[in-house]
Amino acid sequence: MFFKEEMIHQTETIAAIATAMNNSGIGIIRISGEDAFSVIRKIFRPAKEKDMDTVASHTVHYGTIMDGERIVDEVLVLIMRAPHTYTREDTVEIDCHGGMYVLNKTLELVLKNGARAAEPGEFTKRAFLNGRIDLSQAEAVIDVINAENDFALKSAMTQLKGSVSEKVRKERALLLSQIAYIEAALDDPEHIEMEGYGSTLLPILSECREDIRQLLENADDGRIMKEGIRTVILGKPNVGKSSLLNALLGQERAIVTDIAGTTRDALEESLRIHDVTLNVIDTAGIRNTEDVIEKIGVDKAKEYAKEADLIVFVVDTSRPLDEDDYEILQIIRDKKVIALFNKQDLAVAADLKTLKEELGQIPVIETSIVENTGLDQFVSTVREMFYKKEINFNDQVYITNARQKSALAAAEDALTKAMDSINMGMSEDFFTIDMMEAYTQLGLLIGETVEDDLADEIFSRFCMGK
Ligand code: GDP
Q1: 381 lines ligand 1 (CB under 6 A)
Q2: Residue 440: CA atoms inside 13 Å, Cβ hemisphere, count?
Q3: Residue nearest to atom 2 of ligand 1 (CA)
């Protein structure tokens, strides 16, 4: 079991360059830990004489970084005292000139005078270990840094503010009080009645599971908003798959050809059309004139289809349909699909009526990629399918992190098992194990310990009196 408290024995002072690793206007060196101020005292000479040990917190000081008597750089030093700092430790930031040489030189001095080089993410790790943020917030910090669009930034910021943690804590508290009650009853069967408790418990677990499912459902929306729609274009040879990709890209980046053997090695092409981002997965046959199904195999095509958020099924209406078209149709049955009836500029030779019946609810768009018709409608259909939900950051939480998502899925699973056990009339030990598992998984999501708080909870709530 993971105990956060056991890990807080790191009093070593750490330091790192906190800005980009290239020459720029300014560069910042961050120092955190018990010795942060003693380090700065040794290498910084303030312009006006003052005692750096006693200056007020959150103040800025002008002066020079000194290597003995040699001036290394002219800097601003920020003094921030624990606990009101990012790491909750004493923290110093040095604003240097942003050249890599001068930054490294200054860092070297810092390291020589009592700090050690920080590992990647170590400042945030300390913020976590020192209890300023939880694990999901720590991960949000990384997401804020990596955000590439407005949605990604907003969702990371809400997570950083603790929205995910708040929801997860609520569910955990609920589970914990139930587990604690059952444990107490098992300990003291004479005084605490368990008869028929299953029927009280079931709706509580069901609601909890529903909330988790909601988070999981939003997780996919979140990923799509953040990263784009994973798209696979399927269709037999020569229907116009590469032409479609080219048209969408608006430039000749993919290779369109009638001759086989010109496939390029690209795994995914990310393209943005207004607000819609499509990540087109290259199915190895898409840029090739060979039979896409034959080339990648039905199993592989199924696999791609499974991973995709959207399948674009391209049909050549100038040729009669054949079993290849229908085989693809079978693969994509349960997915979100848009069918393109392509080559509308040519005479229609395919039996489109039958195909339309087979397609059922799947939207059909008539296109001529060479004449550039129907593509606007394609994009607006995509938008309708994926972006119609209003994104509301006030009461929606979007989990976009894979680790958090898998913890949620495991918690959902465990709750289902617990409910099954209750329904089958199993004894309490059976379903408390699964409830505990759900509680643990949710704890992993925010990085909290388990045994300790369970003990506390039982003790404080039920006062066993022994
Ligand atoms: P893929 O094998 O499915 O990738 O098909 P391609 O994109 O390589 O297209 C095969 C051939 O069909 C090329 O010669 C394209 O120019 C042509 N083509 C694609 N779309 C259309 C269309 O809408 N109308 C016509 N007339 N030809 C098209």
Answers
A1: no
A2: 13
A3: 238
